[in-house]
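Running this now, will post back.
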Amino acid sequence: MARETAEQLDLELTEHNDYLRRVGGAPPPGAEAPAPYRLRTPTPRDTAVVGRRAAQCLVDLVASSGAPVVLALLLVLVPIGDTASLGPVQLSVAAVLVGLVALGSYLWYWVIRPSRARGQTMGMRLAQVRVVAADGSPVGLGRLLVRWLLLPVDLALVGLVSMAVGRYHQRLGDRLAGTVVIRD
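Update: finished.
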């Protein structure tokens, strides 16, 4: 009976590793999955990382704003000819350009990069936390997009209050996306 159970667990782990290989980030065939890849539903203790998340958020806000801030400063501080002769059309084009760069930069930093980096932004990596689906599986682009879209709401102290009172320490974006942030 114990042998059947062990074989069943090996089969489940193999199937899980095959799934992870399809979505990216799994170990190569034949290699044992490292601990973070073993599917396990996170517990409230796993998610008790509110202090780490606050520090991570500050790091991520600074890191993700780098490209838009540099571009805006270049457009404002580096005069292109006579800046007094810039009309409303040129200023509007510059504003749209900065907005598009900001949108692309934030989308890459908060959604695309974490989907390919085990659910971690640079700040999360430094704070040794990562985001996973509520069942412990790797997080996908859709869930990361929901979290990112609700980030402005969560930054207005809603997220901190939500993390402080919730059993799994989830901000509003986590609750609606079905994700949790755990120790890595």
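The CA atoms of residues 150 and 173 lie 5 Å apart. More later if anyone needs it.
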